[in-house]
Structure formats: structure tokens, C-alpha cells
Amino acid sequence: MSTGVETLEFQAEARQLLQLMIHSIYSNKDIFLRELISNASDALDKLRLESLVDKDLSADTTDLHIEIEVDREQRTLTVRDNGIGMSRDEVVGLIGTIAKSGTAELLRQMKESKDAAASQDLIGQFGVGFYSTFMVADKVTLVSRRAGEETGTRWESSGSGTYTIEPVADAAQGTAVTVHLKPEDADDQLFDYTAEWKIKELVKRYSDFIAWPIRMTVERPAVEGESEGATETEVTTLNSMKALWARPRSEVGDEEYKEFYRHISRDWNDPLEIIHMKGEGTFEYEALLFIPSQAPFDLFTRDAKLGIQLYVKRVFIMDDCQALMPEYLRFVKGVVDAQDLSLNISREILQQDRQIQLMRRRLVKKVLSTVKELMSSDADRYRTFWQEFGRAVKEGLLNDFDNQRAILDISSFASTEDPEKLVTLEQYVERMKEGQSDIYYMTGESRSMIENSPHMEAFHAKGYEVLLLTDPVDEMWVEAVSAYEGKQLRSIAKGQVDLDTEQEKEEEGSDRDQQKEEFAPLLSWLTEKLGEQVKEVRLSSRLTTSPAILVGDAQDMTPTLERMYRAMGQELPKIKRILELNPTHSLVTGLRKAHEQRADDPAIAETAELLYGTALLAEGGELADPARFARLLADRLARTL
């Protein structure tokens, strides 16, 4: 262990964030104190939890608190806690680097953003905690000693590219952050962070609900009999320490809820929805949940954490309580306070605990029903919710079968009906055409790719609405959901499609029979010729303008899903598809006649190969031999000149 002062460099992304802070990209500088107090509160929670788990931990837990200290002459403000503290490696790891997913993406979007308000939204999505001190500081000093260790660590930086770090022999347990404030702006007294009134105001506004006492030594007039103007000091507690979730909703203001949300989520934006509930009966619990207004950067990364904190009788037990909320609702933030659980309960035991499972079921149903209410009461806020979290919610259709119907009810999808609006399954069913028995959909990589697909031709011509499903998860959940309101969900890219009415079938019956007879030799020959690529060649009833199309059997995996599985390293057998031909297209009728007259002509075989290749390209597929296809096509085009 080093015994002297070391100068280290910030991680590159940390340096960039520091510069953003120093140049005040976020206009509300007041929040730096909230962030420091929030960090201190977390440190106290962690110490109490660790002391419960590790009875041999050498730590003083008799008077856990947060202290704010001001030196007006030196223009410093110190936030001190006697919580868990940090070791030297933790100081370097937590402050010298940013090990958060999405940092690079955050910085990229900030650089591209020309709008200051948009930049604030971006930084609010990330949450910068300790770094916000550099909005008001010329220099920041941190002294910390981890509970159970003998030596502390001093960290100091002016926010430039480097920081210093050194051991401290006499450091107190916990962490003290001293902010060396920038010179006072005489024109703006609202930002005097050495003023007692200002600190009291900020603590009341942002941190009143913190469960630990926030103390400060304040001045008050001296007792009667002493000289006029004399003052004396006393230690006062600045916050009420009332657990917000334990108070009736009627007694809690919206601003209090919003500040509590920011505290537990580290999100600077307001929540989209607040859910305050209480469970009574065989077991009791209180819950305060929030649906964010913006998705976090790590929503779809492997290290994304669930946002539910578990308390037992007001005692913090753990954050990221995975047993209380399913993964598809991982964006929900909040607190659940149970009355009858053990303080020593582990994550493993939680997964099996009956009370936890019952709470989870009730919490999930409440979240889903809240979104359902939002659909009918506030369309704009619902749209925001679905835009930010719809992809995650649809994951629940794959594994939460108890709530599958509730998830379907709050889901909405793009469709061919209106490019500007999403449609729910209920709305789709209400406007189905007379005689329509199925809910039609197609999956694909983009709306434009699906809308321009040959699969859509007959549906456009007949005026049938088709759901356009473009999220990767859509490829999987449609396999798990067979029907809605008794209507089968049916892919227009699989199986046989016949949209003709019974009357149309009767009128065209003889013509169809004649077509089948005329094309039978060609279809048989093509099935044999293209046997390596397709399982069957048949006539199509879904095409109006394209010559050919590839479709899957009703139970086949889609090409997109097949590619997804292969990208994940899964070994799959080759899935052959069906080539359908448009019997009214001039290319197909010409090929039939040419085959009748000169079946052995190599040009006929080349045409068949080109026909298959164009069908594959039309759906976004990849050719096995692109060079050969290009050569055949070039030769064929040259003959037409």
C-alpha cells in the first residue's frame, strides 16, 4: 500500500463528464447538495445492513447520522457521514472512473445535441451524483475510512484531468466531502451555499424524507440577559425523517414524491406516474413505486439493475430486490417496506419466500392496472410510457403467463391503418372486416421493409389491417401468444393465405383449377431444381404485383428469429421455406411457356435461380452466392439491349 501522495488520471469518460459539470451544463446547481446527502444516506444504509450480516464488523453504529458543516470565511461546505466508508481501491474505482453502462452513448448524444434543454434531459437520464459538486466548486476534497479498516484515504481534485490520493492515519469512520466553493457572485445571493437559510431550504426541499438525521450547527440569539446581538450555537436536525411511504397519500405533496423519486432513482427528471399502495391482511407491507418518464441508458444491457429497494420495519435490507418485480418491469423504481420478514433474509431465501411472492403478484398487478388506467385517462402520457418501455414490457408475454392478458391489454402496435397512430389489440378487433377471423401481423426489421414487402400485396389490395411488429422481442412473443379475444394471431408471411370471399372463390373456381393444371409441370420441375433452397414451389394467392415470394410453413421459425438465434451461437438445422409464384405475372407465365417448349435450356434454369434470388432479396435475405447472382443478372440484362 502506498504511503505517499499519488497523482492519478481520471478515466477519459469521467474527464468529459467533469468538464460538463464545471461548465454548468445543468442550470439547477442546487442539486449538488441533494446528491451528496443521498450518497451519505446510502452509506449509512449499507453500514447498518453490513453490521446485521457481519456480527464481527468493527464499526460504531450507535449514532448514525449525516452532518453538514459550513466555514463562511474559507467558503467551504462539508457533508459528513459515519456510514460504511470506502477503501482506497473503492475511492479510485467509484470516483476516478465511471463503470456505468451507457456513458459513451450519453456523451455522444450530448455532443450532438444543440439544445441546452435537451442536454439537461440527457444528463438527467444518467445521473452524475458526486460529479455535480463541480458545478459549484473550484476544488473538492474527500476523506473516507471504511468501517473495519484502520487507515483512511484522502482524495482531492480541481476537476481537471487528474486527482491526488493519499492515506490518512486519523480519518473518522465514514466519508466527508468538502466542497471548496467558487467565489461568491455578488449579483446572485440565491446561490450562497454558506448561508444557513439556504442550506435549510435545500434540505427541506430535497432531503426531508431521508431516514437518517441531517444535523447542522446553527446560530441563534443568545438567551435573555446577555449582551445585545450576542449569539450562541446549537446542533439542530434539519429533516423530519418521516418515511414517505408510511404517510397517507393525502398528506404528501407532489414535490415531496418527486424529490423522493430522484433520491432513490438518481434520475433528475420527474416520474411519469406515482403508485402508493398498502397491503393488509395476513401480512402487511407498504409500497411506493414510480414509473420513470424516460428509459435509463442501461435498460437493455445485461448489467441493468431492478429498481426496487426492500425495507423491513423501516430498516433498509437491499436495493435491486429482484424477487419483488419481474425483469420486464425492471424500469419501475421504488420502495417496499414489509412488516413480517426477518432482517437477515437473503436474496436466495427471498426467491422462495411465500410472502414475497404474494407481494410480487400484487405489485405487478398494480403496475399493469395503473398503466391500463393511464391509457384511458391520459393518452399522451401513455404514449410516452409505451415509447420508452414498450419493448421491455412485451418481454413479459414470454414468461409471465398469469399476466399475459393484462400485458396484451396495455400493449399497442404500429399498423397499416394509420402511420401516425398505434393501435391496441382491442381496437384492432373492433374494426376487423366482416368475415375476418384472424388478427394479421408481420414481423420485420423496420416499418418500411414490412410495408414494401410482397407479403403485403394482397392485404393492401383487400384493405385488411396488418400489425407491423419491428422490435426484436416481437419475433418471440408472437410464438407464445396464440390468440386474443378468440381471434388467432396469424403471420401473413407463414402458411397459406386466401383472402377471397366464398362468392369470389365460387366465381373463380374453374379458373383456379385450370391454373393448377397448367402450372403443375413447372412447379414440379422448380421444386426439384431448387430443392437445396426450398421445400416446395406452389402458386400464390397473396401476390398482386410481384412475381414470387418466400413464405414459411405455419410452424416455421421466421428468418429474422433464425438469424437472432444463430447470432447467439445456437446451432439450428437449415430451415427450408416455400417459394410461391404469382400465376398472373408476365415473368411467371413466360417461364411456364418457355419450360413447356424447351425444358432443357440452361437459360430456363438460370431464370429459376434469378426468380428465387429476387424473392430472397425482396424480404431482406442474404444470397448464398451474391457474385453468381450478379453475374447471371448482368448477362440477362445484356441480352435485352
What do you see in this structure?
- The longest helix is centred in the last third of the chain and has 28 residues, at 502-529.
- The strands form four sheets. The protein has a nine-stranded mixed β-sheet, covered by helices on one side. It has a six-stranded mixed β-sheet with strand order 16-15-18-17-20-19. A five-stranded mixed β-sheet has the order 10-11-14-12-13, with helices on both faces.
- By secondary structure, the chain is an alpha+beta fold.
- It has 21 helices and 23 strands.
- Helix 2 crosses helix 6, helix 9 crosses helix 10 and helix 17 (502-529) crosses helix 19 (586-597).
- Mean pLDDT is 86; it is low at 114-127.
Fraction in beta strands:
15-25%
Give the overall shape: elongated
Largest sheet: 9 strands, mixed
Structural class, please?
alpha+beta
How far do the termini sit from each other?
Answer: 81 Å
State the helix count. 21
- Biggest β-sheet: strands ordered side by side in the sheet: 1-6-5-4-7-3-2-8-9
- Taking all residues together, what is the mean pLDDT? 86
Radius of gyration: 33 Å
Number of strands: 23
Q: Bin the helical content.
A: 25-40%
- Stretches where pLDDT is under 50 for at least 5 consecutive residues are 114-127
